[in-house]
């Protein structure tokens, strides 16, 4: 058994476990045999939300996070090998900016710091596609966008995600053994959401804000599993999207129509994602298995 397998075969804490992505991640990790302690500030009384072992934790309280990570909570003993941190106010504009910032920054600092204090060497966390410059009122520097240009946060939510990526780099500088993987998820979709996709088709400007990207929650969960297996010390970030766009028009056509002055790099497949997943494919071995096209006949 490798050092990694030994760590991940111990308990994995998943924060934000009652959320949209968290539910898919917890279900997937449990299916592949990972011992998951699901953590959220909500959902403790709803067995449909998070089946299995669950601990209600407010991540803005450092003491609660440390207790969860060190197996100190009654009935939840056991050494934690890795943390998957998904909890957050998940978008701009849901709550006043300062509330979003206070919650998300405190939660993430506490998770990173408590992992360090508990000697946990693997942290996977949810960054966001927003750091790429969403909603692209300023056009992207080129397309498909990738991880090769500095974050361009355009909202308080995104500013915090960018700061988290920077924070992870410093935690890794402090501990050369630490592996931290930031997953810049695209817009998370459950299968039920695909029924709404035909409504996107008439106006290409409706979904230009994230270059027509999306991530199936099941593929997001698969990416988390891949990220947990990453064993290169240091902090790294990966765009996690599906292989195609939400549109039935071709990707080249969409760009020519909506962003005619943006340079297209490389050959674009017909519906190829404009949020490049090449790095995730290459380094993590991530390969999306799902598409909305398997669920809804594309309009147009
Ligand atoms: N939904 C998207 O389209 C999207 C896109 C990119 C990135 N993300 C990121 O992915 C992650 C998961 O998003 P989601 O869509 O599942 O969101 P969600 O709102 O469905 O789930 C987030 C969960 O975090 C919990 N949470 C928030 N603050 C907490 C705190 N202080 N203590 C404990 N729990 C807390 C909430 O109770 C909720 O269950 C977030 O970090 C989000 O920023 C989401």
From TrEMBL:
Organism of origin: Micromonospora terminaliae
Location of the NAD-dependent epimerase/dehydratase domain: 12-197
First and last residue of the signal peptide: none
Protein name (Swiss-Prot/TrEMBL): NAD(P)-dependent oxidoreductase
InterPro entries assigned to the protein according to its UniProt record, in alphabetical order: Epimerase_deHydtase (IPR001509), Lipid_A_modif_metabolic_enz (IPR050177), NAD(P)-bd_dom_sf (IPR036291)
PANTHER family, sorted: BIFUNCTIONAL POLYMYXIN RESISTANCE PROTEIN ARNA (PTHR43245), NAD(P)-BINDING DOMAIN-CONTAINING PROTEIN (PTHR43245:SF55)
């Amino acid at each position: 058994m490798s050092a990694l397998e030994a760590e991940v075969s111990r308990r994995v804490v998943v924060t934000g476990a009652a959320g949209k992505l968290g539910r898919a991640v917890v279900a997937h990790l449990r299916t592949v045999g990972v011992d998951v302690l699901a953590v959220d500030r909500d959902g403790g009384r709803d067995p449909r939300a998070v089946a299995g072992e669950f601990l209600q934790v407010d991540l803005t309280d450092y003491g609660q996070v440390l207790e969860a990570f060190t197996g100190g909570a009654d009935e939840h003993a056991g050494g934690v090998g890795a943390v998957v941190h998904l909890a957050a106010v998940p978008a701009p504009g849901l709550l006043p900016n300062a509330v979003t910032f206070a919650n998300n920054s405190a939660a993430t600092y506490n998770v990173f710091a408590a992992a360090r204090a508990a000697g946990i060497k693997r942290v996977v966390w949810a960054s966001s596609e927003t750091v790429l410059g969403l909603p692209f009122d300023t056009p992207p520097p080129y397309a498909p966008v990738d991880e090769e240009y500095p974050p361009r946060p355009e909202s308080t939510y995104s500013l915090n995600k960018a700061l988290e990526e920077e924070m992870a780099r410093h935690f890794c500088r402090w501990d050369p053994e630490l592996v931290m993987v930031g997953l810049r998820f695209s817009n998370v979709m459950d299968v039920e959401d695909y029924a709404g996709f035909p409504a996107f088709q008439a106006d290409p400007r409706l979904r230009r804000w994230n270059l027509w990207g999306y991530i199936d929650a099941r593929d997001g969960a698969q990416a988390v599993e891949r990220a947990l297996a990453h064993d290169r010390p240091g902090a790294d970030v990966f765009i996690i999207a599906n292989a195609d766009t939400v549109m039935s028009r071709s990707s080249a056509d969409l760009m020519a129509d909506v962003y005619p002055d943006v340079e297209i790099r490389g050959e674009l497949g017909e519906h190829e994602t404009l949020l490049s997943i090449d790095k995730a494919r290459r380094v993590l071995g991530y390969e999306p298995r799902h598409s909305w096209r398997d669920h809804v006949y594309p309009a147009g």
